[in-house]
From TrEMBL, chain B:
Keywords: ATP-binding, Ligase, Nucleotide-binding, Protein biosynthesis. This is Glutamyl-tRNA(Gln) amidotransferase subunit A. Belongs to the amidase family. GatA subfamily. Its EC number is 6.3.5.7. The active site is at K78 (charge relay system), S153 (charge relay system), S177 (acyl-ester intermediate). The keyword ATP-binding applies. The gene is gatA. InterPro entries: Amidase, Amidase_CS, Amidase_dom, AS_sf, GatA. Allows the formation of correctly charged Gln-tRNA(Gln) through the transamidation of misacylated Glu-tRNA(Gln) in organisms which lack glutaminyl-tRNA synthetase. The reaction takes place in the presence of glutamine and ATP through an activated gamma-phospho-Glu-tRNA(Gln). GO terms for molecular function: glutaminyl-tRNA synthase (glutamine-hydrolyzing) activity.
């Protein structure tokens, strides 16, 4: 496989990360090394399902249960709270 | 001293009324105070709460209640497992102030069993790393040589157990994070079969690979802790429906006729000569006890590390998308709009290794590259799993090194991700194939540092792993030795 050129700024944008040029360059180099491990693999045929037939996932019934966790407990971790709500920057003008 | 004893011994002493849980907890807390300044295993010590838990156990016992085997035994917890009202940081700036409003299922189970929690343990940030050096909080030192790493990511757990700063600990293992530090610190660590321990309340790294498991100074102690944490939990959709035996009763059956496979591929891969020698000597010791040793082949082994980094980073990039500075955790100041809030909070809150893996995961899942990387990784995963399945037709367990080398020096590999990733080369296959595996000590290298033997079994073969490991433990006269610190 040809050497992949990683568009580090595009990936950073998708990942919601900011980095300076020096860091971006370092990351690009290191990621190219890691990706290189994969490129060195022989071609493998096959399909992947990702599900384990011996242990299919069991989802719990979709019913409402009363939570023991209070609003106060949950909001106590929020960086900024006002009138029992989480404060975020304005998103609608 | 009480902190030096095994959980199995202490449990019997507690039941007979020879010691109290408060005395035992004081002994462990005293050891933490004396030693943790040098080792640095704990992120948070919960002295007051631990003594309260211990006193509660003592008064229940005084009333004549029949208590579980773990009642009154200190079990310290890796800092990525949610503990209600107790700081759970993942050793990250992102969660520097996070106090979960709920307990992980494993914590509920430990509480129900009357276990005492002395505190929360250091780790590589978000469990990404093999040396604990990626912790944003502190460095952890190897109790056998303070200039060396304890391994990772459950390095705090391994160092605390090895130094006597706890009796037992929980770690988590996504690619070797229980076994590799156990190997580096000379203790016993089990990565259980995927689905056997609930992941509810474990802060996710790679959900299809993560598994919580026990770390201890003896095999019997690991069995005791595993007994308490395994089992079905409906809050984890991947939790298996399975009936588990009492693992403390699965040992002592000998190894006569046990077929142990030795895969030749695990002895290249940068495995040092001294590690190879120690592991093969341990296998020989089991042969002398009647085990049949077979050379086997797992051809895709050298490709596993690549598959592992693709799959785990892809899952991490999705799992860690939730950390956005809105509802909990770190939020950047002086922000300009919502997107800026996300980007600044994440960029300031995450360390370099976490960012690198999020970026790698985002890349392999991005349009145009998905087939070349992620899909290829998943196909390879299936291939590795089927090679193991085939191997287990001809043998009961597989023996390999846990880590290709002994604990390296602090700072030695920090800026070379590929070198660091090589520490996981013998362990990642097990997670990829959803198998259980245990690391037990099997001698030391020329530098005096512990070497680990990894025993791998088919799914749900923990009983056989405990039995073989305990047999080897008794052959070498026991593992439970705490080194002099410093």
């Amino acid at each position: 496989m040809n050497e992949i050129k990683i568009d580090i700024n595009h990936i950073a944008k998708l990942a919601r990360l900011k980095m300076d040029e020096e860091q971006a360059e370092k990351f690009a180099r290191q990621m190219t090394d890691i990706i290189g491990m994969v490129d060195s693999l022989p071609a493998i045929e096959g399909t992947a399902t990702g599900l384990d037939p011996a242990n299919p996932m069991t989802l719990r019934p979709d019913v409402v249960v009363v939570s023991e966790t209070t609003r106060e407990e949950i909001l106590s971790n929020a960086p900024q709270v006002e009138a029992g709500c989480v404060v975020v920057p304005r998103i609608v003008e | 001293m009480l902190y030096q004893k095994s959980a199995t011994e202490l449990s019997a002493m507690l039941a007979r009324g020879e010691i109290s849980a408060v005395e035992l907890t004081r002994s462990v807390l005293g050891r933490i105070e004396e030693t943790d300044g040098k080792v640095g295993a704990y992120v948070t010590v919960c002295a007051e709460d631990a003594l309260k838990q211990a006193a509660a156990v003592d008064s229940r016992r005084a009333r004549g209640e029949e208590l579980p085997a773990l009642a009154g035994i200190p079990v310290a917890i890796k800092d990525n497992i949610c503990t209600k009202g107790v700081l759970t940081t993942c050793s990250s700036k992102m969660l520097y102030n996070f106090k979960p409003p709920y307990n992980a299922t494993v914590i509920e189970r430990l509480n129900a069993a009357g276990a005492v929690m002395p505190g929360k343990l250091n780790m590589d940030e978000f469990a990404m790393g093999s040396s604990c050096e990626n912790s944003a909080i502190k460095l952890t030192h190897n109790p056998h040589d303070l200039t060396r790493v304890p391994g990772g990511s459950s390095g705090g757990s391994a160092a605390a157990v090895a130094s006597g700063e706890t009796i037992l600990a929980l770690g988590s293992d996504t690619g070797g994070s229980i076994r590799q530090p156990s190997s580096c610190c000379g203790i016993v660590g089990l990565k259980p079969t995927y689905g056997s321990v609930s992941r509810y309340g474990l802060i996710a790294f790679a959900s299809s690979l993560d598994q919580i498991g026990p770390m201890a100074r003896t095999v019997g102690d690991a069995a005791l802790l595993y007994n308490t944490i395994c089992g079905r939990d409906e809050r984890d959709a991947t939790s298996a429906h399975h009936t588990y035996p009492d693992f403390t009763k699965c040992m002592g059956k000998g190894v006569k006729g046990l077929r142990i496979g030795v895969p030749k591929e695990y002895f290249g891969l940068g495995v040092t000569k001294e590690v190879e020698k120690a592991v093969l000597e341990a296998v020989d010791a089991l042969r002398a006890e009647g085990a049949e040793i077979r050379e086997i082949s797992l051809p895709s082994t050298d490709a596993a590390l690549a598959a592992y980094y693709i799959i785990s980073s892809a899952e991490a990039s999705s799992n860690l998308a939730r950390f956005d500075g809105v509802k909990y955790g770190y939020r950047a100041r002086e922000i300009d709009g919502l997107i800026d809030l996300y980007e600044k909070s994440r960029s300031e809150g995450f360390g370099d290794e976490v960012k690198r893996r999020i970026m790698l995961g985002t890349f392999v899942l991005s349009s145009g590259f998905f087939d070349a990387y992620y899909k290829r990784g998943k196909v390879l995963q299936q291939k590795i799993a089927s090679e193991f399945a085939e191997a287990f037709e001809g043998c009961d367990l597989i023996a390999t090194p846990t880590s290709p080398f002994t604990a390296f020096r602090l700072g030695e590999n920090v800026d070379d991700p590929l070198k660091m990733y090589a520490a996981d080369i013998c362990t990642v296959t097990v997670n990829i194939a959803s198998l259980p595996a245990m690391s037990i000590p099997c001698g030391t290298g020329a530098d005096g540092m512990p070497i680990g033997l990894q025993l791998i079994g088919p799914r749900f073969s923990e009983a056989a792993l405990f039995n073989a490991a305990a047999h080897y433990e008794s052959l070498v006269g026991g593992f439970n030795k705490i080194p002099a610190i410093g």
